[in-house]
Amino acid sequence: MSEVLLQLEGVHTHIGPYHILHGVDCAIPAGGLTVLLGRNGAGKTTTLRTIMGLWQASSGRIRFDGLDISKAPTPDIARAGIAYVPESMAIFTDLTVRENIVLAARSGPVDSGRLDWMLGLFPALKRFWNLPAGNLSGGQKQMLAIARAIAEPRRLLLVDEPTKGLAPVMVRSMIEAFRALKAAGETILLVEQNFYAASALGDHVLVMDDGRIAHSGAMSDLVADPVLQQRLLGLSLDAHQ
Ligand SMILES: Nc1ncnc2c1ncn2[C@@H]1O[C@H](COP(=O)(O)OP(=O)(O)OP(=O)(O)O)[C@@H](O)[C@H]1O
What keywords would UniProt list here (predicted)? Predict the structure, then answer.
């Protein structure tokens, strides 16, 4: 495996009295796209939130490029180069698409070359550039949320279920955009329940079950092995989209 960018070792997370993550161990290699799969409630979102410091790990270690970020506050984790696109998207619906992107660039104006590249990934955003983001469709809002996350160069992009609830045509646009992000060398950890999208994009796959990593390997091995798919994923996947 190539160089490890993010490593979780024995990570436990409690939310109030609830013990949600039960010792998560995994490594995300630098470059490429890792898909995090698992049934509803397995702990995928909690894993992303714990990486970002939005839930504090109660024990275990999270290392980003060798730096221990287990106890770091979220702004420091973001500054270290990790971007997070939650399922709820986190965009400003009253502001225009342009204003949403301008505000996302914290260190100054968005580089014009980068802006052209982003709008090439998500052409709909160019079309609705001066419209309030609240007018966008669900898929376009999701694209705006991702564009905000990459308004500045990042080293790792965490994205939670970007295709959830999208029509097949929008799922295909999203897949194309992630392919272009991969081609640009971005490292991505993607929570994705749609197996069509997951298998089209994933280089690596992690499968979670009950707050632990139940499987880790190459996505091509999982795609080629229906018995393994059935054992790990059962009927929780939407394989027909
Ligand atoms: N704020 C919270 N308080 C208490 N329990 C929570 C909270 N957030 C999540 N949980 C519980 O933690 C477990 C893992 O939830 P999580 O959202 O991480 O799962 P998930 O794999 O992302 O599921 P889904 O695919 O449904 O989004 C679930 O049992 C959930 O009910």
Answer: Amino-acid transport, ATP-binding, Nucleotide-binding, Transport
